[in-house]
Amino acid sequence: MKIIFSLPFQTTYGRNLLIVGSTPELGQWDAARGLRMYDRASGFWKAAIHLSAEKCESFAYRYAIEDQSTGVVHFEEAQNRCFAPPECRGLETIVQRDFRRPEVDPETFFSCAPFRKVIFRRPEMRPIQDCPECEARGVHIRLRVPAARVAPGYSLYVTGNIPALGFWNPEKALPLHDSGYPVWQVDFHVRPVEIPFQYKYFIADSDKIIVTWESGDNRRLTDHDLSINEEYHAIVISEYPFRSSAAPWKGAGLAIPVFSLRTARGLGVGEFLDLKPLTDWAKQLGLQMIQLLPLNDTSVRLDWSDAYPYATLSVFALHPLYLNLQAIDGLSAAMLHEIEAVAKRLNQKDVVDYAAVMSAKMDFLKRIFVQQAGDFLASAAFLAFLKEQADWLKPYAAFCYLRDRHGTSDYRNWGEFSRITPAAIERLTGPDTPHNREIAFHYFIQYHLHQQLLEASQYARACGIVLKGDIPIGVDKASVETWLHPEWFNMDKSAGAPPDDFAVEGQNWGFPTYQWEAMAADGYTWWKKRLGHLSRYFDAIRLDHIIGFFRIWEIPGDAVTALKGRFSPAIPLSRAELEAAGIKDVHTLCEAHITDGALESIFGARAEEIIREYLESSESGRYRFRSEFDSQNKITARFFSRFNGKSGLTYADHNALHALFRLYDDVVLIPDKPGDREFFHPRIFMDQTQAFGSLDARTQAVLRRFYEDYYFERQESLWAQGAKEKLSALKSATDMLICGEDLGMVPRCVAGVME
Question: Which of 326, 333, 449, 463 has the smallest CB count inside 10 Å?
Fold first, then answer.
């Protein structure tokens, strides 16, 4: 069987088209072995492969542009194309006619999960009709057209200027089947003399009453689509999407944390099953989406601070906070009565008492598990769950067990388990260990959390409501993720945000930053697994702080404020370019500007005390922090030791502490790495420092030019290129609708890359 690919495409000199695909004939995704196409000078590129009829099955492929001068190959965007041969017998030559995909096509968004699986979900799809055998000298035609915006109860039809398509009579139009929705398909036969022909699609209801014709000119199968001197038995036309003439689609939704969905059935907090009545309410209002905060387990410190939903312990485990106890099968009447009594007390509180709720739930769960462990651990449903989720569930359960045994999530204090291996995880979670039940307790919780969230998710989908999840940009430093894969994280750095009018010292979130190079070398497997895991429950996802995929505000690990942070990645300023511009004393610009005048203006009468306790003279004639106070963490520890911890600080003490932070942050340049004397980053808002104010006007003007270039010009292409690689990898891993959120200093390149 011969397959001829045909694609209308205009290129410039030296740029050729390739087809790369899953079969050996198309290089098995190796562009170097891909199939070169040729141009008939009509703008139609063609290429052919030969397959035996027995081996002619469906395969995936993509078009790519090869730059002959550089050898660089650019693949087309979006999902792989699929060749599926007609089922007719006797086909010897098939033309696969494709169309160039636009770089940005809003209609493609309607092919992602929220629309395909939920809003436009088609519960009863039209089956594929049996294809008759090819008529003598006839040509088999297959039309395949993406059309996601076809509501349930409506169908797609095609009519045209040939007998098979009804001679433009809608009553005789052919219905397309939707078994491959959002791609619709129809097969029919034409005589060779009927080519070329014209046709058009329309949407109609179940009574074939037309709702809308597609906009634009008629579609055509022309002589240009076909090669010369070929006899065709089949032509497969993979169309560009249905051109909707309807008004732009609009939808509405609400954003709400699950913990706020408090009901009488809950234990002082909203729970996964409370999403079901919320779904009913949303449907009644005509809403289409419910957006939630992150639902991952955050039980790092086992106190009220774990209520913050973005400090993740595990990116896969769900939070026990959201488990409804009464929905666990097999509870005794006495246990249910006791749960209801505690629920009544906790539900009377005006706000969620996180610590009290978690204490009560974990206590009940331990008692329930003791009663049910034997049957649960032997059940087929649990064993299937464990087998399917073992790669994250076992490490998570082992981490929780060790956290509880050692009284801390800081695994650096876990002795032999401070560094872990897959083999050690298997030994630790083995079924014959004396602590097996303590490990299995966490399996038990995660199993029931999964069941309850899945129930709520499936209910929402059936009601036409999209659940939208949330992926935090970071993880806690004391997390399962950093324990398992320290090579993916910069543990000596913290992520945060630059200062603004609402946070003049910036934000220090305390999360480690990512080793993106290591993650890229692994094919971004961790991110892809996260998305795949969440797609069981959600059809849309929000990427928190999407700017973090472009660049992150990276802060030294021993800092409290974010003022001496810098963008990562970033192209630093070099000593050579600074000196060429007349900036000679570069090293001094990296030193904190601490003078007698500065100390007196900040501390007044306490200036001498501050000098005596924290500072020493430097070679530049100014002061510097003594070695025992040369980081903000050391200064903080000193204050807390003197005042019985943070709670012992008076308002004046707090102000004095942050005044010391300001002294520490009062620099103009920051070395690219500690001790680096060749590359530097301008400190954020450097013109507000006393160090900058002490410089002459000419030096200030030169530094301002470097500052503007560094923050608003120099990094744009670097950030855009890196983000496109990361976000493309994420997008290719899921059919969820991926959304991004951010505010503050948003680089110009962000919108373009997201588009």
Answer: 333
**In this model, does residue 705 exceed pLDDT 80?**
yes
Considering only the top CATH level, what class is 108-238?
mainly beta
Q: At what angle do helices 596-603 and 607-614 cross, to 10 degrees?
A: 120
For the chain, what are the domain ranges?
A: 2-83, 108-238, 261-279+289-451, 485-552+717-754, 572-590+667-714, 592-666
Rg (CA), the chain: 32
Cβ burial, residue 743 (10 Å; 0-12/13-18/19+): exposed
* Three-class secondary structure of residue 47 per DSSP: strand
d(Cα 465, Cα 308) in Å, to the nearest integer?
27
Quick one: which of 257, 280, 281, 286 has its CA closest to 269?
257
Binned at pLDDT 50, 70 and 90, residue 84 comes out as: confident
Token code pair at residue 313: 């312990």
Note whether 161 and 256 are within 8 A (CB): no
Instruction: Give whole-number Cα distances, 249 to 252, 607, 755, in Å.
Output: 11, 65, 18
- CB neighbourhood size of 427 (10 A): 11
Tokens of 102: 């636009």
Domain 2-83 CATH assignment equals 1.10.10.10: no
569: preceding bond cis by omega (within 30 degrees): yes
Query: CA 296, CA 305: separation in Å to the nearest integer?
Result: 15
* Cα 565 off chain centre by: 25
Q: Which residues pair with residue 50 across a beta bridge?
A: 2
User: In Å, what is the CA distance from 505 to each residue of 208, 381, 560, 625, 686?
Assistant: 65, 51, 9, 20, 13
| Residue 45 near residue 17, CB atoms below 8 Å | yes
Give the least confident one: 226-230, 304-308, 687-691: 226-230
Of 110-124, 362-376, 709-723, minimum mean pLDDT range = 110-124
Assess whether the previous peptide bond of 671 is cis (omega < 30° from 0).
no
Instruction: Answer for the pair 490, 554: CB distance below 8 angstroms, yes or no.
Output: yes
List pLDDT tens digits, range 93-151: 899 999 888 776 666 788 899 999 999 998 766 665 555 554 455 889 999 999 999 98
Please answer whether residues 167 and 161 qualify as being in contact, where contact means their C-beta atoms are separated by less than 8 angstroms: yes
Containing H/E element for 17?
strand 15-21
In this prediction the pTM is 0.89
